[in-house]
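dumping this here so i dont lose it
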């Protein structure tokens, strides 16, 4: 047999195969037979391993020799695998990693559901009831995030504050590194005014940045919006929760056990007791709700029909991001499939040039399994190389994208800092590389394994590459690329049109040449007359600035967060009306409407005469008028804000003195909600404590100098810190951040898909031109013109493109229905979008076919007839 091996090696060398390849080919085909003859069964296992190593060495040698093919294939796969790995790293961080809490599957959040909303909203009267339920729940805790200003420094700094009840730290596994947490007494609401001193726990990062990590910080005092707080504890490093993040300061949440406050203004979390399921807890809450209605039948939540339930905190945190991330996962999966189709086409083209080699191997006794294994080995090597390259590029790309991501994506941290390249992501990349290598290598492997040695040796490698099997396989892959690309392009076009539709929505106010800023409300200003005097003085000084048209104040800026939703009622019988409803409400200064140019429909705006000692008045929007009064005839009627919420919140009946146009306060994609505006001078003293107010200034022309002067004037007039200015146009743009980010990602993936599809079509058509050179020469020798050749080649490409577009439209109609929740102002099956995108893709694809067709038309017939 050794002599026979040497003879076969000599024959292969004589056929033109390089000596090292001939040696590898013969040893591969006869290796197992020699080993089976000379070694034991245990040795055969080693021989199998040796054969695999031979395949790897041979595959690496082949890829090294064909560097152009290797670079293109690896780059294509790196794009697909890198994008998928990058998105998986985000999915893993947001959806798969457990909550940062002990036994996270048992940590739940209370939901309040009615016909208007479903949100984690709690009122003190309900919270105290939940705390008494000890059969299914434990560690029931309240939380509320706020922003204060650190005023114990020379330049006030905006500070993130989290108010929590005493059980919150234990529930979520947060640790105090120095000092202690809050006691039950510190949590109780007392008669002491807030400025008499309270306690605070500060975050570890805040401790290092503001106190230099001093070990003597516990016991010192800080001032937040003018209130002194004694520091009693310092949080451990890196301690955070997905609910509260890493606030700078933690404050106790005063909660009286006998409170009857019905205002839903905070959230509540708890832990299920061991052995208690969500279904059991929700059944108990249902019984509690029935008991609550019997005991408090006149409360707002009882009349409204609120339903209490709990769900896991992790599910609530990722509620909106889940579907978005799944949609992006599908998008990058399509990109990977397109990359696989491209790589498979490259391998098919390369397999055609290796027909003689494969035929010789088959003639020497290599079976189909051996040929398939060799081709798959090379495809897996390409895939692993693509994964290694794509891993670095993809991870860098996702960090760059997350830096642009809106804050609505939970758990990723600032600029995506929580998204890391850990063992889970690496394992996914390796698994994806192996699966991808098998997927795009199967068609070339099976195609190569069907090579007929007699036909291949007699016809020559060049012509046998044009066999029907490989031609059909390449056509199928081109059709798949076109169809998948069309789906992604249509999705990105729908997102683009959604953003355009949102940006064209009239928000109800004029944002041009209008800026906004914020100032805190400090304890020394808690009396309404003093606040009103300060507001009036500051607004007047701002209006006196050259270039300023109007300046006003509001407690809630449009499109800059959720407006407070309170019950309202018409005072007295309303023939044909509903008499009760819910509305957003805000306290505003007299010039607020002028600053935003909100149109007045009937009545008048507020004036300086609407003081705290004047008659209670209100302005409502058109939606509110239609909600409570038939035909919107509300002028001169009275409205009660906070109806049923109890003393300190329910306001006296207010006479409606004006009706203004609707403003889309909560979002451009949401219908205008009923709204009530109250003069800032008539705001109750208790409601001025803490928080901040927004100033709106309309200018004739924007300039850096005027912006600086506005900030300086406001700071001097109020004696308060002023946040950086923002234009109202930026506020509108920021309200559509989620839609903009979705559009950006889909556009990027669509662009990747288009580039890959064009490369794939160009590569296939170029290869077909090379393979048909002899045929083209014969046609031209028989009288065919250059135009006829171009039509023939472009026509072949056009047929594949049209089939791909038809299949892609069918797929897009199915898949884009799942995008309906992300779209605005457009139908998921919008015919113009489908038509325009299809035409653009067809034109680009035809251009990719035309370039090889022109090259084919320039072939010299005499040279082509000698081509093999």
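and the seq i came up w/
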């Amino acid at each position: 047999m050794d002599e026979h091996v040497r003879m076969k090696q000599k024959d292969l060398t004589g056929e033109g195969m390089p000596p090292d390849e001939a040696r590898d080919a013969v040893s591969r085909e006869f290796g197992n037979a020699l080993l089976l003859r000379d070694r034991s069964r245990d040795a055969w296992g080693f021989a199998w391993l040796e054969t695999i190593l031979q395949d790897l060495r041979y595959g690496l040698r082949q890829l090294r020799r064909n560097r152009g093919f290797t670079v293109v294939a690896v780059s294509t796969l790196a794009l697909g695998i890198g994008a998928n790995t990058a998105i998986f790293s985000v999915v893993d961080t947001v959806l798969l990693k457990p909550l940062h809490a002990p036994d996270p599957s048992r940590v739940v959040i209370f939901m309040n559901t009615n016909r208007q909303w479903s949100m984690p909203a709690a009122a003190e009267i309900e919270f105290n009831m939940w705390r008494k339920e000890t059969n299914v729940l434990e560690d029931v805790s309240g939380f509320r995030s706020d922003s204060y200003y650190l005023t114990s420094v020379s330049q006030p700094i905006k500070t993130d504050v989290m108010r929590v009840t005493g059980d919150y730290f234990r529930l979520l596994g947060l640790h105090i590194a120095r000092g202690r947490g809050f006691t039950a007494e510190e949590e109780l609401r007392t008669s002491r005014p807030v400025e008499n001193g309270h306690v605070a726990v500060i975050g570890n990062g805040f401790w290092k940045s503001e106190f230099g990590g001093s070990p003597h910080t516990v016991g010192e005092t800080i001032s937040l919006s003018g209130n002194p707080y004694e520091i009693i504890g310092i949080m451990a490093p890196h301690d955070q929760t997905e609910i509260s993040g890493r606030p700078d300061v933690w404050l106790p949440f005063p909660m009286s056990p006998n409170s009857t406050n019905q205002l839903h203004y905070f959230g509540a979390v708890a832990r299920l007791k061991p052995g208690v399921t969500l279904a059991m807890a929700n059944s108990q809450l249902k019984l509690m709700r029935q008991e609550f209605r019997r005991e408090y039948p006149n409360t707002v939540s009882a009349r409204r029909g609120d339903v209490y339930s709990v769900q896991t905190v992790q599910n609530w945190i990722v509620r909106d991001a889940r579907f978005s991330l799944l949609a992006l996962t599908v998008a990058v999966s399509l990109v990977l499939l397109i990359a696989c189709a491209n790589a498979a086409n490259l391998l098919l083209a390369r397999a055609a040039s290796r027909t003689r080699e494969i035929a010789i191997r088959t003639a020497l006794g290599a079976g189909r399994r051996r040929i398939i294994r060799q081709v798959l080995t090379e495809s897996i090597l390409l895939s692993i190389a693509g994964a290694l390259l794509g891993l670095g590029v993809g991870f860098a790309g996702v960090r760059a994208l997350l830096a642009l991501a809106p804050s609505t994506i939970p758990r990723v941290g600032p600029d995506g800092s929580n998204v890391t390249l850990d063992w889970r992501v690496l394992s996914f990349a390796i698994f994806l590389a192996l699966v991808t290598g098998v997927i795009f290598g199967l068609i070339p492997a099976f195609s190569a394994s069907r090579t007929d040695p007699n036909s291949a040796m007699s016809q020559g490698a060049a012509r046998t590459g044009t066999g029907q099997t490989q031609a059909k396989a390449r056509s199928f892959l081109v059709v798949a690329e076109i169809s998948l690309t069309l789906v992604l392009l249509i999705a990105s076009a729908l997102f683009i049109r959604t953003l355009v539709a949102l940006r064209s929505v009239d928000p109800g106010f004029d944002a041009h040449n209008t800026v906004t800023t914020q100032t805190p409300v400090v304890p020394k200003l808690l009396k309404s007359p003093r606040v009103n005097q300060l507001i009036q003085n500051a607004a007047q000084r701002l209006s006196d600035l050259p270039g300023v048209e109007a300046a006003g104040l509001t407690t809630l800026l449009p499109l800059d967060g959720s407006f407070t939703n309170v019950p309202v009622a018409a005072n007295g019988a309303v023939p044909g009306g509903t008499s009760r409803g819910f509305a957003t409400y805000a306290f505003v200064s007299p010039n607020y409407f002028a600053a935003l140019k909100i149109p007045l429909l009937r009545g008048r705006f507020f004036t300086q005469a609407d003081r705290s000692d004047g008659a209670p008045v209100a302005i409502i929007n058109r939606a509110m008028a239609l909600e409570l009064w038939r035909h919107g005839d509300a002028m001169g009627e009275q409205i009660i804000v906070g109806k049923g919420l109890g003393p300190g919140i329910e306001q006296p009946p207010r006479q409606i003195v004006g009706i203004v146009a609707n403003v889309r306060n909560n979002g451009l994609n949401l219908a205008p909600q009923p709204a009530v505006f109250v003069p800032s001078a008539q705001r109750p003293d208790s409601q001025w404590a803490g928080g901040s107010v927004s100033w709106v200034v309309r200018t004739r022309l924007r300039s850096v100098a005027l912006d600086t002067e506005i900030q300086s004037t406001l700071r001097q007039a109020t004696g308060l810190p002023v946040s950086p200015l923002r234009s109202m146009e930026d506020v509108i743009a920021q309200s559509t951040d989620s839609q903009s980010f979705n559009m950006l990602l889909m556009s990027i993936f669509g662009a990747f898909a288009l580039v890959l599809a064009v490369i794939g079509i160009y590569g296939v058509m170029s290869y077909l031109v090379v393979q048909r050179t002899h045929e083209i020469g014969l046609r031209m020798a028989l009288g065919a013109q250059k135009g006829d050749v171009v039509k023939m080649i472009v026509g072949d490409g056009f047929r594949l493109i049209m089939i791909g577009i038809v299949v892609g439209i069918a797929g897009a109609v199915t898949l884009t229905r799942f995008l309906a929740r992300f779209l605005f102002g457009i139908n998921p099956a919008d015919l113009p979008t489908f038509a325009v995108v299809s035409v653009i893709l067809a034109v680009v694809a035809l251009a990719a076919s035309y370039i090889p067709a022109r090259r084919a038309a320039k072939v010299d017939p005499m040279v082509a007839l000698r081509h093999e």
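The first helix runs from residue 2 to 14.
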